[in-house]
Amino acid sequence: MLFLQLVLFVVLLPDGGSEDDFQLPISIRMILTSSFYNHSWTQNQGSAWLDELQTHGWDSKTGAFTYLQPWSKGNFSNKELKEQERSLHIFSTGFPPIFHNHVRQWQLEYPFQVQVVKGCELHFGKALECYLRIAYQGSDLVNFQNMTWQPSPKGGSRAQQICKLFNQYYVVNKIVHVHINDILPRFFLGLLDAGKAYLLRQVRPEAWLSTGPSPGPGRLLLVCHVSGFYPKSVGVMWMWGEQEQWGTQRGDILPHADGTWYLRVMLDVVAREAAGLSCRVRHSSLGGQDMVLYWEQPHSMGLVFLAVIVPVVLLAGLVLWLWKCW
Questions:
Q1: For a 10 Å CB count at each end of the chain, is N or C smaller?
Q2: 3-class DSSP assignment, residue 41
Q3: Is the pLDDT assigned to residue 212 strictly greater than 70?
Q4: 12-31: per-residue pLDDT in tens?
C-alpha cells in the first residue's frame, strides 16, 4: 500500500508540479442500493462517483456498466471490467435473499432500503483509505475491516447479528479483502490517471450582480452570481474597499451538466449604503488576479424616461423642420 501511495502521488503531479495542482481530498464511491418493497419484489440501482462527478452507471437487468465519461474505464482491460461486471451481478442477485430470509430475526420492516458502499479516499499527507460499508435506511449498519465484519456503533443488536452471520463466510470475506485492498485501489489509481487532464482542467468563472427579493423597507438584497467554474473550490466575498462584509449568505455550490459549478452569495444592506460595495471572486483559473464587480445604484425610472424621450422629441422636431423646408 505504501508503494501504491507513492505511485499515486507521481500520477497526480503533472510535469513535476506540486500537490496543490490536484485538489485533495478526493474520493471514489461505488453505491449499490437495494430497495425491498415486499418479500418477492426487490429493485437494485448502482452507480460510481468520483467526488460529485458520476463516472459510471449500472444496468441491473444485464449487469453491464455504463461509462459516463470518456475515461471511465480507467486503465483496466476489457477482461478485467467484464470480471467486475460479473462479480457485481452475482452479488446483486445473491445479496437481497439474505435480508429477505432474516426479516423477522433482524426486525426489518417492508419497505426498506439497504445501501452497500465501497470506495477509497485520498487525503493530503495520509495513506489511501479504502472501505466497504453497509447501511440500513441511510444509517450505518456494518463495515468490513481486516477480514471481518464489524458492527456500527448505531447498528445495535441488528448489526451484531448480521456480523455474526457474515463472518461465517470465510472464503467470501477473503475475496472481499482482496477486492478492497488490491482491485479497488488499482481501479481508483487508473481512473485518476486516465481522467487527469479532465480533473486538472481550469475553467474561468463568469460573474454578474443582481438584486433578490427585498428584505424590507429601505433595504436591498445584493446577489453575486458566479457560474461555470472548475475546479469546485472558489472564494466569493462582498467587500467595502478591502474590508470583507459580515452577514453574507452563501448558497450551495450547485453542479452544471457540463461538470462545472454555480454559486451565489447574498448580502442584506441598507439601500443608501449599497453604493461602493463590490463582489470579489477568487479562483485558481484566474491566475492570481481576482475578479471584482462593483455595485452601482440603478438609475431612476425618471432619468431613464428622459434619456429615451428627449432624443426622440428632438429627432421628430428636426424631421418636421426639414419637411417644411422641403
A1: C
A2: strand
A3: yes
A4: 444 444 444 557 789 999 99
Parts of the chain belonging to CATH 3.30.500.10? 2-199
Find out whether 278 and 238 touch, Cβ atoms under 8 Å.
yes
Topology given in CATH for the domain delimited by 2-199: 3.30.500
Q: How far apart are CA 67 and CA 51, in angstroms?
A: 16
H-helix segments, the chain = 2-12, 78-100, 156-166, 170-178, 184-194, 196-199, 301-325
3-state secondary structure 170-232: HHHHHHHHHHHHHHHHHHHHHHHHHCHHHHCCCECCEEEEEECCCCCCCEEEEEEEEEEEECC
| Dihedral over Cα of 256, 248, 22, 52: its sign | negative
Quickly tell me which residue has 437495494 as its cell: 34
Give tens-digit pLDDT for 143-163.
999 899 999 999 999 999 999
Give the Cα separation of 8 and 74 in Å (integer): 14
Domain with CATH 2.60.40.10 in the chain: 206-297
Please tell me the pTM assigned to this model. Answer: 0.79
For residue 156, the SS3 value is helix
CA distance 151 to 67: 34
CA distance 236 to 174: 49
Superfamily of domain 206-297, CATH level 4: Immunoglobulins (2.60.40.10)
Is residue 10 within 8 Å of 21, Cβ to Cβ? no
